[in-house]
């Protein structure tokens, strides 16, 4: 006899986890399945959330909606799980040159008003920041591994989680939904939350990724007790006891999770450009960001097979994007709401 659930969720990264919570909150039955390969983007993500991003110090896309949704979502999960994994803490950004400083001056009183503040609180014994920098008081950081692990334990304790690989081709369409014989499960809807997918998917496989590999170092910096995240082209994020994560690179070929000597050299050289203290490399990892097109999320039901749905494309901002769009997708899947046209999977499926 097959187990019956409302929703089968394939993938327990940031996308699948947030969606599972949103469906459970709506009283639906869920089974989350993950192959636990260890190389997923979410397992490597630093969980950084900032209102100003990129070379042009642009305001993060839909910040005014997305950030409050993320804060409310992670705070609720913390209360439910009895753990702490989301911290709101100012982050610092150092200017690389005078041009970047001018760019900041132009934006600070306009688009970024209220989100950034000039600062002189930069320790010159630790950092070389001749052009100064600014603070982002409304920054935050998600301890992604802690959030995913505690969520997984919660789902598992309720019989809503299994370790398994679900090959999309093995999902059989039925008159009432789908059947996956290898799992002995029938569901009304299956949602693929698989991150970067270089394999073949008979339904959503035509969606084009613009995925980007990222590498990260874990370093020990004796004497450095900075507890804010520092951004200066790359970022330096404290994890305690003088240990920091630093990254990340962006490369597009090959798209695999193998750390490279070039990636390590790039991060080390960019770190030395602003860190005055010597450091020791403790670890080096890589993963692929699931970027689709220009980096917008992609979600919704398949146009011909409504029992199949998709949630992907969280790019380099999964911690910020997942809660808002998981809630939008859950609402849609439960017949309560619609998907924004700009993130609707129909758009990605139609793109040549
Ligand atoms: C180096 C690096 C640094 C980053 N830093 C940040 C950051 O600071 N802040 C931020 O917000 N984002 C960051 N990101 C981006 C973030 O990691 C992604 O946005 C996010 O993790 C994507 O989540 P996802 O659930 O869509 O995909 P994934 O994390 O890839 O999760 C997909 C899951 O599906 C599972 N899966 C796939 N196929 C199958 C199958 N057939 N059967 C069963 N399970 C399957 C996988 O095992 C995996 O667990 C970073 C990414 C990288 C690579």
Structural features, described:
This protein is α+β, with helices and mostly antiparallel strands. It has a domain at 3-45 and 145-207 and 295-350: FAD/NAD(P)-binding domain. It has helices spanning 14-25, 41-44, 63-81, 98-108, 144-157, 261-272, 318-333, 345-350; strands at residues 3-10, 30-34, 48-49, 52-53, 58-59, 86-88, 91-94, 117-119, 133-136, 140-142, 161-163, 172-173, 178-180, 185-192, 212-220, 230-232, 234-240, 243-247, 280-289, 298-301, 308-312. Strands 1, 2, 11, 12, 13, 14, 20 and 21 form an 8-stranded mixed beta sheet that branches. A hairpin with a 4-residue loop joins strand 13 and strand 14. Helix 1 packs across helix 7 and helix 3 (63-81) crosses helix 7 (318-333). The termini are far apart. The model has no long low-confidence stretch (mean pLDDT 96). Bound molecules: flavin-adenine dinucleotide (FAD). The site of flavin-adenine dinucleotide (FAD) has 41 residues, from helix 1, strand 2, helix 2, strand 15 and strand 19. Keywords: Oxidoreductase.
Outline the secondary-structure elements.
Layout lengths: L2 E8 L3 H12 L4 E5 L6 H4 L3 E2 L2 E2 L4 E2 L3 H19 L4 E3 L2 E4 L3 H11 L8 E3 L13 E4 L3 E3 L1 H14 L3 E3 L8 E2 L4 E3 L4 E8 L19 E9 L9 E3 L1 E7 L2 E5 L13 H12 L7 E10 L8 E4 L6 E5 L5 H16 L11 H6 L2
Parallel strand pairs: 1-2, 1-14, 2-11, 7-16, 14-21
Antiparallel strand pairs: 3-10, 4-5, 6-10, 7-9, 8-9, 12-13, 13-14, 15-18, 15-19, 16-17, 17-18, 20-21
Bound molecules: flavin-adenine dinucleotide.
